[in-house]
Every structure is written in C-alpha cells, then in structure tokens.
C-alpha cells in the first residue's frame, strides 16, 4: 500500500488502530495527501496531579497527526521516523474543553526529510490549545542493515 492507502485503511477501520490511540481515546477522521485529522474527547483519566490534562496528551495527538500527514505522502516501501518535535502549549486542557480536533499538514516533503505542522483546537469554542512542528527522516524501500 502507499502511505495514503495505509493511513486511510486505519482511519476507516479496515486495519486496526494502533494501541496508543485506543489507550488515549483518539481516532483519525480524515486523511488526504499531506494532511491528517484526529479527534478525541477529553476525559478525567488524562488529568495530571495539578488538575489539568497532561501535556503529553496534546503532544501525542500532535505527533500522531503530523506523522500521519507525512505518512500520506510515502510511496510503497518508504518509511519515516521522527527526528524532532517542538510543541507550544497555548492554554490548559480540562474536562470543560470537551472534544478536541488535531489537524496536521505537511510543510515540506523532500527525498530524505519532511516537515509538518499541527494545531490542537477545542471543537466547541474553536480556541487553539497547542501547536507544533516536526521534522522526520524518510528512508527508502531498501531493507535496513
């Protein structure tokens, strides 16, 4: 499968969701070339000791969406790995935030490196919760040594 075919197969339920998505309660909802969207409902089980959703939740959604956006541009046999991710937390996420939407788009896709950006948005208010960028290394279809 191409990267886009693979991501769509997961999002459409023809392939199983990754365990992290089930654990944190998020799912992919849209995939097209260079773009991926995830949706999730905030739950109390995501809270940290200071009474807000742990930042790792936002970072995981952003990382997943940005990675999938890059994955949609991969040819058969290509794979990627994250080299760097930078996240900015804009406002706290709480139960009152409700459902969230994470949208990611590819900024650049070269032969060996791709970059993407993502935004985590509260669906009810439209407020930006966090935003991020990532840099990924693309490897060809040849087997690793």
Could you characterize what this model shows?
With 145 residues, the protein is of the alpha+beta class. The chain has a single domain, classed as Hotdog Thioesterase (Thiol Ester Dehydrase, Chain A, Roll), CATH 3.10.129. It is built from three helices and six strands. It has helices at residues 3-11, 19-24, 55-71, and strands at 26-32, 35-41, 79-89, 99-109, 113-122, 128-139. Strands 1-2-4-5-6-3 form a six-stranded antiparallel sheet. The longest helix has 17 residues, at 55-71. The radius of gyration is 15 Å and the shape is globular. The chain starts with a helix and ends in a 6-residue tail after the last strand.
In short:
The chain has 145 residues and is an alpha+beta fold. The chain has three helices and six strands, in the order H-H-E-E-H-E-E-E-E. It has a six-stranded antiparallel sheet with strand order 1-2-4-5-6-3.
Mean pLDDT: 96
Instruction: Give the strand order, joined by hyphens, for the main sheet.
Output: 1-2-4-5-6-3
From the N-terminal CA to the C-terminal CA, the straight-line distance is: 23 Å
User: What name does CATH use for the topology?
Assistant: Thiol Ester Dehydrase, Chain A
**How many strands in all?**
6
Total individual domains: 1
Shape: globular
Proportion of strand residues: 35-45%
* Uncertain segments: none
- In oligomeric terms, what are we looking at? single chain
Q: Describe the biggest sheet?
A: 6 strands, antiparallel
* Helix content percent band: 10-25%
How many DSSP H or I helices?
3
CATH homologous superfamily designation:
Hotdog Thioesterase
The CATH class is identified as Alpha Beta
Any guess at the CATH architecture?
A: Roll
H and E string:
HHEEHEEEE
Q: What class, by secondary structure content?
A: alpha+beta
The value of Rg in angstroms is: 15 Å
């Amino acid at each position: 499968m191409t990267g886009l075919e693979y991501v769509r197969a997961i999002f459409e339920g023809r392939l199983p969701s990754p365990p992290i998505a089930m654990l944190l309660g998020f799912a992919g909802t849209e995939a097209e070339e260079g773009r991926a969207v995830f949706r999730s409902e905030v739950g109390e089980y995501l809270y940290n000791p200071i009474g807000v959703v742990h930042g790792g939740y936002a970072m995981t959604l952003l990382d997943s969406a940005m990675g999938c956006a890059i994955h949609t541009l991969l040819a058969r046999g290509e794979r990627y790995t994250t080299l760097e991710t930078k996240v900015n937390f804009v406002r706290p996420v709480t139960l009152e935030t409700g459902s969230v939407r994470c949208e990611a788009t590819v900024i650049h896709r070269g032969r060996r490196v791709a970059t993407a950006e993502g935004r985590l948005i509260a669906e009810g208010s439209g407020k930006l919760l966090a935003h991020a960028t990532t840099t990924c290394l693309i490897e060809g279809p040849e087997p690793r040594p």
